[in-house]
Amino acid sequence: MKKRNLLIIILSLFIGNSVVAQQQAQNPIIHADVPDASIIRVGDTYYMSSTTMHMNPGVPIMKSRDLVNWEIVNYAYNTLGDSDALNMENGENAYGRGSWASSLRYHNENFYVSTFSSTTGKTYIFKTKDIENGTFEEISFSPSLHDNTLFFDDNGKTYLIWGGGKLNIVELKDDLSGVKEGTERVLIENATEPIGSNYILPAEGSQLFKANGKYYLFNIAWPRDGMRTVIIHRADKITGSYEGKLAFQDKGVAQGGLIDTPEGDWFAYLFRDYGAVGRIPYLVPVKWENGWPVLGENGKVPKTLDLPANEGWIPGIVASDDFSRKSGDRDLPLVWQWNHNPQDGYWSLKDREGFLRLTTDRVDTSFLNTRNTLTQRTIGPKSSAVTKVDLSGMKEGDYAGLGLLQKNFGFVGAKMLNNKKHIIMVNGASEEPVEVESIPLNQEELYLKAVGDFQDRKDTAEFYYSLDGENWKAIGNELKMSYTLPHFMGYRFALFNYATKEAGGHVDFDYFKIEAEKNN
Prior knowledge:
This protein is mostly beta strands. 5% of the residues lie in helices and 48% in strands. It has helices spanning 2-23, 84-87, and strands at 24-26, 38-42, 45-49, 55-56, 58-64, 70-77, 100-107, 110-117, 122-128, 137-141, 149-152, 158-164, 166-171, 185-188, 199-211, 214-223, 229-235, 243-248, 254-260, 266-273, 279-289, 292-295, 304-308, 337-339, 347-348, 356-359, 374-377, 382-390, 398-405, 410-417, 420-427, 434-441, 445-453, 460-466, 472-480, 492-499, 506-516. A hairpin with a 5-residue loop joins strand 11 and strand 12. The radius of gyration is 24 Å and the shape is globular. Belongs to the glycosyl hydrolase 43 family. This is Glycoside hydrolase 43 family protein. The active site is at 36 (proton acceptor), 204 (proton donor).
C-alpha cells in the first residue's frame, strides 16, 4: 500500500510538472525568420518590427499580448522605392539588401519605425498614430545610416546612433527630415573592445534604451573562434561617456534589446542564426545587478520561460489561404509578401473568383529572377506547404509551381515544352540548377507539396506531386537547403509562374495550405 501511495505521489508530481512545463513558453519564441527585432510595450500590448529586406510589403509590424504569441498586423511600407534593383529589372535585384534592422518607438502618441537601405542610399523614418490599421507617413533623407537606433530623449531632442565598430550619433531636425548640421560625432570609438581585438564581426545592430535613469546601448559582435555575443554599454547621458562589457554569450543568441512587462519583469529579446529556416527570435530573462542588466539563467538561454505557452505560429505568422475573398477583405492577408516589388497588373484575385492568378509579364531565365513570386516563411522544426494549380493558361516555355526560395532553391511544378506539359522537380543547390526529374502530364490540374525539415539544422526538403490530391508521389531528389549571405533570409514557400519564350501565360492557384510542427 505504501509503495502504491508513493507511486501515485511520484506520478502526480510528474504529471504536475509536465502540465507546468506545457503552460510555459518555450524558446525559440518563433521558429521562423524574424531577425533584427525591435520591441516596444504600449500599456499591456507589445509591438515588434523586423527585417524582411527585398520582400514587399516591408518591415512587418507584429503584435502580442504576452511577448510569446505574435501576429502580423501591419507593414511600414508597401514598396521602398522604384528602381531597377527593387523592381528586379535590367539584370539587377535587391536580394539580401532592401531595408535592414529597424528601430521601433512610441513617442507623443505616435509610432515611429526607422530603418535604412543601402539599395536606395537613404535613411527612413515611418510615422503613424495607428500602428495596427493606419498607413505610415514616410520621411527619408540621405545618407543611409547603417543599423541605426532611433531615440527620443527626455530633453525633447531626437537622436540616431549608427555604425559598426565605431559608433556615431547625430541629432535629427525637429521634423525628423534630416540631420541637424554640426551634430554628428563619434559616440564610442571602439564598441567592439569588450570582446578584444580578434573578431569576425565588429559591434553593430545598435539598440538604445533608458532605464533607471541610465542609457543602455545593446550591440552584437562576433569574436574569432567564438560565437555571436551581446555587448552592452552604459552611460549617464546619451552623449556619453560609455562603459562597456561583454553581457551574454550562449548558443550564438545575440542582437536585440530590453523589454519590460506591466508586472515589472524584464527580458532581453535576441535572435539566433539557425541555418536554412533563418534567424529565429529568443527571449531570456533579465535581472538587474549594480545598475547592469544581467541576461539569462546563470548566463544561459533557458528552454522554458515563465510566460504563457506558445500557441503556434498559424495563423499569426504564416497561414493557409483559399484565395476566396468577401467584401472588405484584404486582397492578400498580411502573412504574404512578394519577392521584390510586385507588378500589380499581372496578379489578381478577381479574374477568377476563389483563385490567385499569376500572369507572366516578360520573359525570364530562372525562378530567382521571376517577379510576382508570392511567399510565406517556412517554419521549424518542420513545415509543409500544399497547393493546387490550374495550368490550362500556360504558354510554350512557361514554368509554374511551388518553390522553396533562397539562392540554393528547389521547386516542384510544371513546364510547357513543345505544347506538352510535364511535371518537374528542379534542384538549384548547385552552381547551375538541375532538372532532376520530368514526368509527362496529361491533365490541367496538379497538386504540389513541399516539405522542409529544419530540426537540429537538418535543413533538407522533399517535393511531391499528386494528380488527385490524395495519392502523393515523391519527385526528384532531396534539396539540401543552406542559408546564404547573398539572400540573407530564411527559406520561403513560394508560388510562382514565369515565361522563358513568350509573356502572357497564366496559372490559377486554388489554395495554399501550410502545416507546421510546434517545438518539442
